[in-house]
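Morning run. Coffee first, then this:
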Amino acid sequence: MTGRAAPGTSDLPHDGSGHRAQLAGTSFRLADGTTSRRLTLDGPAADKEWAAKQAEALPHYESDIDRPPAAVLALYRAFENYIARFLYGRRDLAVLDVGCGLGATLPPYAGLFDPGRGAVENVYVGLDPFAGAAERAYPFVQGRLEDLPEAIEPAFDLFLFATSLDHIRSLGEAAAAVRRLARPGAHAIFWVGLRDNALLGRTLGMTHLQPLFADLGPIAFLGRWLKLALYDLPRHYAYFRRQNWRLRHGRPLDRLHFHYFTTLTIEGALRTFGDVIDRFAPPGGADLFATVRLPA
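And here it is:
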C-alpha cells in the first residue's frame, strides 16, 4: 500500500495535531489511521533548476544501480564500517537515509540495517526524490527532505547523507528540516566527495602510475611513459586549471550538483547542521566521512 501525505500539509501547524504521518515500526501510520510502507510527499512544486539537475542526474544513478565500479564498492564498504562504528552499543534507533537511491534492496552501505542479517535493533527509512523501484524492502519516502517535516512527526535518531549533500540546493533549509525531524540526542553522518585538485590529482596519479610498474618490456614501458608525459599530464593539467578557476569564481563544475565542497568549505557546510564530532578520510581518495551532533 502506498500512502500520500494529507493534502494541504504545507499549511498545517507543527504542533503534533495529528495531521502528519507517524513512523510506527517499519511502517507509516497515516492521518486516516491506515498504515503504509511507502509515503509520497505532496510538497511545493520544485523550481526549474532543481528539476533540471534531477533529470540530468537520473541516468547516472540508473547506470550504477546494478554494477557500481569496484572503487565505489570499496567506498560503500568503508562507509558501512564507519556507520557501524557509530552504531556500536546503540540500539532502537530510527534512521533516515537522505538520498537512498533507486534500488529495491538496501543501498550497499546500509546492509547493517538488513533484518535478514539479524539487524533488528534499528529501523531504516529511505528518502529519495525519485520513485525508483515499485516495491522496496524497507520503508520509503518519495520526496525532498525539505518537505518531509510537513508530512511526518519528529521520529529520527540518525540521518545519513551518502554523497547527497551536494545535491541539496539550500543547506540551511535542509538543516532546519533535519532539526524538526530529529529526536533528542540525534546525529547525522555524512559521506562527501571533495573537489580539491590536490586530492583528485593524487587519485588520478595513482591510476596512471600503477600500470607503469606492471611487468612490461622496455619498449612498452617507454611508450607508456611518453603517453603519460605528452598526452595525459597536459590534458589533466588543463582540466584541473579550469576547475580551479571555476571553484574560485563560484561557477558550476557540472550540471548535477548545487555545491562543490573542498577541504576549506566542507567544515562550514557541516557546521550548518551541528557540531562536527568525528571525521575520517579514506586513504588514497578525495572523500570524507563525518559525524555531526545535532543541536538539542
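Residues 5-18 have pLDDT under 50 and may be disordered. Good start to the day.
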